[in-house]
Specification:
heterodimer, A: about 130 residues, alpha+beta, 5 helices, B: alpha+beta, Gyrase A, domain 2, Alpha-Beta Plaits, Elongation Factor Tu (Ef-tu), domain 3, 6-stranded mixed beta sheet, 6-stranded antiparallel beta barrel
Chain lengths: ~130, ~375
């Protein structure tokens, strides 16, 4: 199985991606994550203004088969939520890096983003089977 | 932990089809090929193909085979003519489930017992122990590693099987089977399944498994969709069928599970668990397996608590999913008897949130009879 891992993103061990967007960052789940879950049928996302704490769940993604927490990649504030996605959760399967972005965040410390995995490190992480 | 997973004889077919394989009951099994929902829909509307070779096949034969199987199971296998099958529990002395089975009457003195994959070793040991009471009158053979079992399910399943096997199958009733051949290899074609649709389960020896799989997949009758365990689980749940380990196990009995139709107290044989069931029947159940339909989008999962609308603990979810065909979250749950009346509103604790649900009778989905 070959998972799509774009070069220009940062990644977490929990299979989320983070992308710079002006002075905020966009967060979603990876192609690998959506493939593991199967058909996504339900999403729960935080409200704008929510304070995220690194490694603490901020939302839920459910497939037909399983329920999985969304884990905050860094300490941050939620500045935008993809409300359309909640109404069409299947987009997570069809466009995990595009239309299925989940939230935009402002990190408490932008330097924390640099500590996340780059594409090569994430590919190694996938190859190690976690 | 490194556990070596077993493979069915069809594993190369699954890999070639791009299946995602996951560990299940000691086997690497396809959980899906493309999408759980698409595979589910294929079975409800056309024809789906499942590799269920991980399930166990135990042959019980000999002059006292009937007596032995009658002692082992709660249903009445004496009522079967050769070529017929039934669904039954195999119970403990306490009247709880060791496993749920399909028993095929092969001949007057020969039976094929199909067991759940996860229970194979336990079942075989139990069957052998009981058979030993009959001395030379019964022989038990575990052929679980020798057979490929392919479930062909859906409204087009009969036509697909008929074309591939070159036989008119319209006369094969539900829970009946025939011994047929495909390309010179023996095939048992049983009109059974675990999806709530019409269909067949085809048994053939491993060596011919891949050829039969390919012939079914390539049938020109209609598109035949390979389906994984993901769709198998949502199909059986929509159809209100119990899964051993989730909805039934050795802590619950057939009355609680809504499987009283598999208990024949008056079959004239003191089957294992009978005495306990006579008592349970007289006492009445205190809890019952029911369906829950969720009001909203949140999905109940196995292990979630069920409470009254006042917040009192009244039960637990045993299986739950988004029912793909109905597009509603559903669950099976054991509920205290006072809350089992259809139409009752209860609350499922979905990760701390009380989600309202309506108690309904199973199944959630029943196919239109043609």
């Amino acid at each position: 199985m070959s998972d799509n891992v774009p070069d220009n993103l940062r990644y977490t061990a929990d299979h989320e991606w983070v992308k710079a967007d002006g002075d905020s960052y966009v967060v979603g789940i990876t192609d690998h994550a959506q493939a593991e879950l199967g058909d996504v049928v339900f999403l729960e996302l935080p409200d704008v203004g929510t304070e995220l704490k690194k490694d603490v769940p901020f939302g839920v993604v459910e497939s037909v088969k399983a329920v999985s927490d969304l884990i905050a990649p860094v300490n941050a504030e939620v500045v935008e939520v993809n409300a359309d996605l909640v109404d069409s959760p299947e987009t997570v399967n069809s466009s995990p890096y595009g239309d299925a972005w989940m939230i935009k965040i402002k990190p408490s410390n932008p330097g924390d983003i640099d500590a996340l995995m780059d594409a090569a490190a994430y590919k190694d992480h996938l190859a190690s089977g976690s | 932990m490194t556990e070596t997973l077993k493979h069915t004889a069809l594993v190369d077919e699954h890999k070639a089809l791009g299946a995602k394989l996951v560990p299940f009951a000691g086997y690497a099994m396809p959980v899906r090929y493309t999408s759980d929902k698409a595979e589910h829909a294929a079975v409800r509307t056309g024809c789906g193909l499942f590799d269920v070779s991980h399930m166990g096949e135990v042959f019980v034969e000999g002059p006292q085979a009937l007596d032995c199987v009658q002692r082992l199971v709660s249903n009445d296998v004496a009522a079967l003519a050769p070529g017929q099958a039934l669904y039954t529990g195999m119970l403990t002395e306490q009247g709880t489930f060791i496993d749920d089975l399909i028993v095929y009457r092969w001949a007057d003195d020969a039976f094929l017992i199909c067991t759940n994959a996860g229970n194979r070793d336990k079942d075989t040991a139990h069957i052998q122990r009981v058979a030993s009471d009959f001395g030379d009158g019964v022989t038990v053979r575990d052929e679980g590693d020798d057979w490929v079992q392919i479930a062909v399910q859906g409204p087009k399943a009969e036509a697909v099987c008929a074309r591939v096997l070159g036989e008119d199958l319209s006369g094969v009733d539900a829970f009946s089977f025939r011994l047929l051949a495909h390309d010179g290899a023996e095939v048992i074609a049983a009109r059974t399944g675990y999806t709530g649709e019409d269909g067949f389960e085809l048994y053939t020896k491993n060596a011919h498994g891949p050829a039969l799989w390919r012939a079914l997949l390539g049938s020109d009758v209609c598109a035949v969709t390979p389906c994984g365990l993901g769709a198998r689980d949502t199909l059986r749940l929509e159809a209100g069928m119990c899964l051993y380990g989730n909805d039934i196990d050795d802590t619950c009995d057939p009355y609680e599970a809504g499987l009283a139709f598999t208990v024949k107290l008056d079959k004239g044989v003191d089957f294992i668990g009978r005495a306990a069931l006579v008592e349970k029947k007289a006492r009445g159940v205190t809890r019952r397996l029911r369906g829950l339909r969720i009001d909203g989008k949140r999905i109940p999962r196995a292990g979630y608590d069920v409470n009254s609308t006042e917040g009192a603990a009244i039960g637990r979810v045993t299986s739950g999913t988004l029912a793909p065909h109905l597009d509603v979250p559903v669950a099976m749950a054991y509920l205290d008897k006072a809350f089992t009346k259809p139409g009752t509103t209860v609350a499922v604790d979905v990760r701390g949130q009380a989600v309202p649900a309506e108690v309904v009778k199973l199944p959630f989905y029943r196919r239109a009879k043609t």
